[in-house]
Automatic annotation (TrEMBL):
NCBIfam families: gltX_bact (TIGR00464). One of its GO terms (biological process) is glutamyl-tRNA aminoacylation. Keywords: Aminoacyl-tRNA synthetase, ATP-binding, Cytoplasm, Ligase, Nucleotide-binding, Protein biosynthesis. Catalyzes the attachment of glutamate to tRNA(Glu) in a two-step reaction: glutamate is first activated by ATP to form Glu-AMP and then transferred to the acceptor end of tRNA(Glu). HAMAP family: Glu_tRNA_synth_type1. It comes from Nannocystis exedens. GO terms for molecular function: ATP binding; glutamate-tRNA ligase activity; tRNA binding; zinc ion binding. This is Glutamate--tRNA ligase. ATP binds at K266. Pfam families: Anticodon_2, tRNA-synt_1c.
Amino acid sequence: MTGQDGARPPGRLPPRVRIAPSPTGDPHVGTAYIALFNYVFARKHGGTFILRIEDTDQERYTAGSEAAIFEALRWLGLHWDEGPDVGGPHGPYRQSERLPLYRQEIQKLVEKGEAYPCFCTKERLDALRRDQIAAKQSTLGYDGHCRSLSPAEAAARMAAGEAHVIRLRVPDDGETVFVDHLRGELRFENRLIDDQVLFKSDGFPTYHLANVVDDHHMGITHVIRGEEWITSTPKHVLLYKAFGWEAPEFFHLGLLRNADKSKLSKRKNPVSVFHYRDLGYLPETLLNFMANLGYSMGDDRERFTVGEMIAHFEWSRVSAGGPVFDQTKLEAFNGADIRGMSPDKLYDRLIARELSRERMVPLLAQAQERVNRLDDFIPYLAFFFGGSLDYGPVLDKLKVKDRTPAEVATTLEAFAQDIERDPAAREFTAPAIEAFARGFCQANGWKNKDLFMLLRVAVTGRTASPSLFETMALCGKDRCRLRIRDVVALLRAQPS
Ligand code: GLU
């Protein structure tokens, strides 16, 4: 453990730290949480905070999500010193633009015998796995089939164009040990570590290789990341050794959790930074709330700014326990901050965000067809603002003929989940939502009319509204998701 009381932190200073999100969906509060600690540590010691985009997993990549990461971190004020958009001396900062480097580095490992080509087919690996499961083997993994191919045979097969991956040659025995500065020394038995794939047959590196190569070439001194990467770290340590490079210092922060202590997930909790932005939480409040999840000022003081956290920061005050993302507390913090503002300041904040021209003009365009007086606008537009709605007056409209409430709930839940996975609809424009909703009805044997009414009631709390899909787009994905989830819970609570 560091255990230093304000003493010098471990590792080289000034630090060079990074966050390395993968652009696979909406910007997650977990990413913001990790970013905050990296940012604070860098600022405390006059270091550099880097943003690197880990986009080598082509299957999981979603367009637009890189820009969303930038937007979310900027909204929070966590500005980075080097990154894909701002440049820097160690670029490019997008892994997909660094492929020649990974090829060159993997080549070195193969030449040194630290890594080896593996020609096993998917069929063989699947069969191996099945056998291992059937034999109740405690650890599943590669059996080293291609480990002992002679370099000449391996080279000949590669030259002949045979499909292959490159694996790390993990030592058969011994241990891999590293210090996690929040948890102490961690030891892993090498025989339990799989011969990790470093390079895939599609010509892309895996997370492990690219992450280590980049951290080395970008001069990263401290890796501050989430607990979910702890089991990757011994593989990384082995890789640093194989390359002959010095490993950075490691810190694994606790995983954010739902109230029931499970890993924070969007089924139980809103996890997108945009949810909190769009529902009117203040960025400085969200940061202070997140800081409290892992940091203690030591005197029961919960309310502090990022500047104060930087001035105070010591690793010995960081806790690695899995903190609960407690919505009620965030709400209380936000309320207190709203009350702490002068009405004048509040007005400026409202105009800047909730009532900006950019936000209001499209809403007015919807309302003007339907109201007669200027003072009708605000009440008419009410459902475009705020979070949860009162469904008391429209409860009956959540019933669908010949379907149980449980069935309706399951369908709404599936709708919310599937739209997230649809590359076009997840952008949440009106035409894309409409196309998705029609396809969803067809695929699930629902009448458009029935589903559309349900969505309208869920999203607006009313049975009549401007064009449904326009309305959904203008309410925003996070507000719609929240309300659909509320309705699902309401229906589940009803007797079937
Ligand atoms: N690409 C990983 C992620 O999505 C990076 C993990 C790390 O920081 O090493 O979080």
